[in-house]
Amino acid sequence: MSKINSKACLPTLALAGLMTGPALASDRVFTYVYDVTTQPVGAVEFEQWVTWKTDKDTDSSFDRIDLRSELEFGLTEDLQLGLYLADVRYEDGASVSDDGVQFHDVAAELIYNLSNPTTDPIGAALLGEVKFGGEVFALEAGILLQKNIDRWVFAYNAILEAEWESAHYNEDIGVFEQSAGVSYQFSPKWSAGAELLHEVEFDDWSTTGHNVVYVGPNAAYRGNGWWVSVTQMFQATNVAGESNYQTRLILGIDF
After folding, report:
1. Whole-angstrom Cα distance, residue 68 to residue 180?
2. Of 150, 142, 161, 158, whose CA–CA distance to 196 is shortest?
3. H/E stretch holding 142
4. Residue 170 has what pLDDT?
5. What's the burial of 135, exposed, middle or buried (CB within 10 Å: 0-12/13-18/19+)?
6. What is the 3-state secondary structure (H, E, C) of 52-103?
7. Coil, helix or strand for 121?
8. Average predicted confidence (pLDDT) for the chain
9. % of residues, the chain, pLDDT over 70
10. Structure-derived torsion over alpha carbons of residues 49, 55, 60, 66, reported in degrees to the nearest 10
């Protein structure tokens, strides 16, 4: 089996392994799409994110792993604070100039819930985030939409980010990202569905970069005081400089 095919199969096998266990529905059924619901007042949750991107048309040896550790706090009935304690990145491959592990950034995020996705015609929330690292400073704002119908969850996010990169923060980049997801709760503990991710960058807010689209299946499991969600994405476009496959797993633990 070729290296590319092996990498494509590994996340799929991991997803299949999850699906063979006893089954439950997660409070968070997506990994690339944010829910509009927020933590209850006084609640605390820890989330560990793992995102793996691999294989470019221009570099089949490319691998990137992003680790994110987050604490979420329910401040009010409608307001949630998220603290990203550390975003750590590992990269290697022929196209990577500096292989190895690097600290990337820390961040703070607020989500304000506007309406309920079950009882209101549509659920909505506002998202704001500030991110800071050794070579990145970013501001992010977005609108989150969601509708729950019986066992179905439909969600959509639109997020705009302004980034200043490099050692002197003089590289000005804009990023528009939209994502959508659908999930079905087929047992008391399990949900499964699909997600779509679309991203485009704007260098100096003037030059439009490539539009890249990813799509793939997801699954979510809810345990006793913990949950896990995983999504396997495949690039649906033909952007040679972007990874062909990416996988994200989020493990949540309630306190």
Report:
1. 22
2. 158
3. strand 136-149
4. 78
5. middle
6. EEEEECCEEEEEEEEEEEEEEEECCCCEEEEEEEEEEEEEECCCCCCCEEEE
7. coil
8. 89
9. 90
10. -20
Nearest CA among 120, 132, 154, 127 for reference residue 143: 127
Nearest-CA neighbor of 113 among 35, 27, 29, 33?
A: 35
6: CB partners within 8 A, 6+ apart:
none
The strand pair at 44-56 and 59-74 is best described as: antiparallel
Kindly report the number of other CB atoms within 10 A of residue 180's CB atom.
19
How many residues are present in the chain? 255
User: What single-letter amino acid sits at 122?
Assistant: I
Phi and psi at residue 10, to the nearest 5°:
-55, -50
Cα–Cα dist 81/75, whole Å:
7
CATH 3.30.930.10 fits 3-254, yes or no: no
- Residue ranges of domains in the chain: 3-254
Residue range 122-134: mean pLDDT, rounded? 95
Bigger pLDDT: 220 vs 14:
220
